[in-house]
Specification:
Length: about 550
């Protein structure tokens, strides 16, 4: 409301001027009256009045003008010295007048900022609604900003607050402030950001962007970590794998809300414990002691856990070596927050040199000759990968660029077929064989081959032409000799029955006869000899 003071003098002057005017009028009209018969009123002729009373009239006019001028000046003076101010209240109790509400609001904002920036374990804020004010107007009001603010300084009250973290609507903890909450969420995301990865575009979900290093990284060296490494890396090698983070966020809904600590139980969550809870779910630990006969795959099946989990939880295992008594950590983590990320990995890959064959009827079948050695090419491939908590869910190729074409290898391949010619590689002439005697000295003379037993069918050890098929009087009994047309000959003795004849072409594995005990033999078996260029060889060296 507006209050005007100091106007009594103006009112008094106006009243005095009115009294003077009435006195002059009474004096001028004294003894002069005229009756207007038509209107039945007394009137004074105007000309007679101004002629006989000129001086009193001018005095009256001057007085009226002076009073009006004085009144106008007084109004302007009062208006010029009428000021706005505010009546300040603390919890409804008046504590003084201040020059403006803006000063009170600025002071309160500074106090709130001071509390917000204070490095205290628990953040405090001003109680709401404790300071109010009303705007007023008055002539030269008495205000004292310093006194009012000093009084408020002593009276202001605060209360402790924290930032509540909710995951899918469930409260999981309370941290000091939004900065602490953002730091916690970034720490979880950065756990799955490869070292040195670049941020392709900001596409963060439900919290601030992670602190990424603008560097390339080697996928082979990347591993989950609590914080991304900040090691300085030289200029990016274009031939090394490079990763760009396209987007990263949480699968769950994360909400932050400032609450009074009294509402949340009165205490802040330990940041490290809350981090562990969010990334692991704090599952009950599972341990397994290795027993006799255990293997990693067997343990995984027995305990119904992935084999990868065993390697991940037990990095000390090398070459799958575990010993009886070793204790394995088989704890399965169940994160409260799951990090979903999309990244593009670009790497240079080899283009395998293709092989081109050229046929030659001048070379024997099975023989080859390299005419030109090829060379692998190079290509740059970009993969788009979708990961959950660092584990690959999806992968697709989004681009390929040929850097260097591959040079084909040209091989000449023989097609010439010579019937009866062996390969030089022998098979066992008896299936399910067992050797009963080896090449060497026996009873004062040389045993020229090896003896074996097994299934009864005798087979050709390699392709060739039957050079002899019949009874050998030298002690071999029913025997077969095969010339393999490549310097090798093989001998088969003591057979009960022959199934081939001289000059017949046989392929490797063809039946030659039936195992027996003819000639100089002490029991049913096969006697087998190998010759190369006419010289006796140990069959064991070629079988």
């Amino acid at each position: 409301m507006a209050v005007f003071r100091g106007t009594d003098r103006i009112r008094s002057a106006a009243a005095a001027a009115g009294r003077s005017l009435r006195h002059v009028r009474s004096y001028c009209l004294k003894g002069i009256t005229i009756v207007d018969k038509k209107r039945q009123k007394l009137q004074v002729p105007a000309a007679h009045f101004f002629r006989n009373h000129r001086k009193p009239v001018w005095i009256t006019v001057a007085a009226v003008v002076g009073v009006a001028a004085f009144a106008a000046f007084g109004q302007q003076y009062v208006k010029a010295h009428t000021q706005d101010y505010v009546q300040v209240y603390w919890k409804g109790q008046p504590i003084g007048n201040a020059s403006s509400g803006e000063k009170i609001e600025q002071w309160l904002a500074a106090k709130a900022a001071e509390l917000d920036q204070a490095e205290t374990p628990i953040r405090r804020v001003l109680d709401d609604g404790q300071v109010t004010y009303e705007r007023e107007k008055a002539y030269k009001p008495a205000t004292d900003d310093e006194a009012v603010l000093a009084d408020l300084e002593q009276r202001l009250t605060t209360h402790p607050v924290g930032m509540q973290v909710k995951v899918d609507g469930q409260v999981v903890g309370v941290v000091r402030d939004r900065a602490a909450a953002d730091e916690l969420l970034d720490r979880i995301k950065n756990r799955y950001v490869p070292e040195g990865a670049k941020l392709k575009q900001v596409a963060m979900v439900k919290s601030a962007a992670p602190k990424l290093q603008s560097l390339a990284y080697s996928a082979s060296n990347a591993a989950p970590a609590d914080e991304p490494a900040s090691a300085s890396v030289p200029e990016t090698d274009p031939l090394q794998p490079q990763t760009q983070i396209v987007s990263i966020g949480f699968e769950e809904n994360v909400d932050l809300e400032e609450v009074g600590l009294a509402e949340s139980g009165g205490a802040l969550s330990d940041p490290d414990q809350l981090y562990k809870k969010l990334v692991t779910g704090n599952p009950a630990p599972v341990r397994y002691t290795v027993k006799k006969g255990d293997c990693l795959g067997c343990i995984a099946d027995k305990m119904n856990v992935p084999t990868d989990l065993i390697y991940q939880n037990n990095p000390w295992i090398e070459d799958d070596m575990i010993r009886i008594g070793d204790v394995l950590d088989l704890t399965v983590q169940q994160p409260v927050l799951n990090v979903r990320s999309t990244q593009e990995v670009t790497q240079v890959e080899a283009i395998e040199s293709p092989v081109q064959y050229q046929k030659s009827d001048e070379m024997r079948a099975g023989q080859t000759k390299v005419l030109r050695q090829g060379k692998d090419g190079k290509k740059r491939v970009t993969y788009r990968q979708v990961l959950t908590n660092g584990s690959l869910d999806e992968e697709e190729i989004v681009s390929e660029q040929i850097l260097e074409q591959a040079v084909p290898t040209i091989i000449l391949k023989g097609t010439k077929v010579i019937k009866g010619e062996g390969t030089g590689k022998f098979m066992w002439p008896v299936a399910a064989h067992r050797i009963t005697s080896y090449l060497g000295e026996r009873w004062g003379r040389t045993h020229k081959g090896i003896d074996m037993i097994g299934k009864s069918t005798i087979m050709a050890a390699d392709s060739g032409v039957v050079e002899f098929a019949g009874y050998n009087s030298g002690g071999l009994g029913n025997a077969v000799i095969i010339n393999h047309k490549n310097g090798f000959k093989t001998v088969y003795g003591h057979m009960k029955k022959l199934n081939v004849k001289k000059g017949q072409i046989v392929e490797k594995g063809d039946p030659l006869g039936v195992m027996g005990s003819t000639g100089h033999s002490t029991g049913t078996h096969l006697h087998f000899e190998v010759y190369l260029n006419g010289k006796l060889k140990n069959p064991i060296s070629y079988l």
